Amino acid sequence: MSAPSWRDLLREGAAALRAAGLGEDAQSDARRLLEAASGLGPAALMARKSEAVEPALADAFAALITRRAAREPLSHIVGSVGFWTLDLIVTRDVLTPRPDTETVVEAALAAVPDRSAPLEILDIATGSGAIALALLSELPSARAVATDISAAALAVARNNAAHNRLSERITFIETSWADGVDGPFDLVVSNPPYIASAVIDTLEPEVRDHEPRLALDGGPDGLAPYPHLLAEARRLLKPGGSGVFEIGYDQGEAALALASAAGAAKAQLRRDLAGRGRALVFGFEGAQGTPQD
Ligand SMILES: C[S@@+](CC[C@H](N)C(=O)[O-])C[C@H]1O[C@@H](n2cnc3c(N)ncnc32)[C@H](O)[C@@H]1O
Q1: Beta-carbon-side half-sphere exposure of residue 13 (alpha carbons within 13 Å)
Q2: Which of 12, 26, 33, 166 could potentially form a cystine with 17 if both were Cys, beta carbons 3.0 to 4.6 Å apart?
Q3: Which residues are noted in the entry as S-adenosyl-L-methionine-binding (predicted)?
Q4: Cα 128 to chain center, whole Å?
């Protein structure tokens, strides 16, 4: 029997992932795993699609497909993920940054009147560093403080800052939320854990079995972190500064009520492309936040 071509390998890999329940991600995940196994980019893969594959490479690819079929996250297998315009290192110590969280970055940027200003940013519960680093990449004179309670997550975030040449403008602090942090800040952003505890065991295996529970569990109704985070934003924001917190797609009304209870002057939701409120945007008295809807 002749050796399989790259195209055959990709087709078989995608079929195995489809059989494992990966649906519409099967093809793109198989392609990404073939890139990882071969060290080749998309264009080089395209150019080789009819050529026969070396047996060692076919074995290496099969091993990656087996891991993905067992529902290990793609980001853990390849070790990174694209977020905003950045490439971020991902390990099992951090939440894999999601496209949803780009709504927080967009909302924070929309709230900034002058992108060249020397802004001070606080990212509470930074995980991989995704939000803070994306903002620093867009705001050339800004500096950030990023906190997390997990030392292991902060080690990943530090590596991501270095990997994206942003280390000089970010300081990492291991603490609970913003305990011990002094402001004031122009922007306070956060993507805290917001999944209701009882829902976690119903999530996809990639999340349920592989992501840190500390990054997911938002207490009985998923909203437990927000009252404290809102109070901290109130303490730490400059007059005219803006807060942007990610929320679950069904938490918009509850989040607006919490913001109002915390004394926020102008709270509103930033919506994703599907029209779901995914970020709570707020300021306090004297704030000059930009309307988001
Ligand atoms: C949903 S993840 C968000 C990570 C990152 N900001 C992002 O958007 O991808 C939540 C993060 O909150 C952190 N965390 C949980 N409890 C915390 C606490 N009490 N203080 C600070 N960070 C906490 C977790 O370690 C995790 O990194």
Answers
A1: 30
A2: 26
A3: 148, 177, 191
A4: 7
Per-residue pLDDT tens for 251-278?
999 999 999 999 998 899 999 988 999 9
Which residue, by CA, sits nearest to atom 2 of ligand 1? 215
Q: Could you give the CA distance from residue 31 to residue 44 in angstroms, rounded to a whole number?
A: 12
Burial of 267 (0-12, 13-18, 19+ CB in 10 A): buried
Which residue's CA is the closest to the ligand 1 atom numbered 4?
A: 127
Does any ligand 1 atom lie closer than 6 A to the CB of residue 64?
Answer: no
> Domain 80-282's class?
alpha beta
Could you read off the pLDDT of 91-119 as tens digits, one per residue?
Answer: 999 999 999 999 999 999 999 999 999 99
Q: What is the dihedral of CA 189, 90, 29, 202, to 10 degrees?
A: -70
| Per-residue pLDDT reduced to its tens digit, 237-252 | 999 999 999 999 999 9
| Binding site membership of 149 for ligand 1 (Cβ less than 6 Å) | yes
The predicted structure's pLDDT at residue 273: 87
- 100 class by beta-carbon count within 10 Å (0-12 exposed, 13-18 middle, 19+ buried): middle
Residue 30 and residue 36: Cα distance in Å, rounded? 10
Instruction: Give CA–CA dist 245/223, Å, rounded.
Output: 12
- Whether ligand 1 lies within 6 angstroms of the CB of 268 is answered as no
| pLDDT of 292 higher than 50 | no
Q: Is 277 in the pocket of ligand 1 (CB under 6 A)?
A: no
Nearest in space to 200 (alpha carbons), one of 215, 186, 178, 183: 215
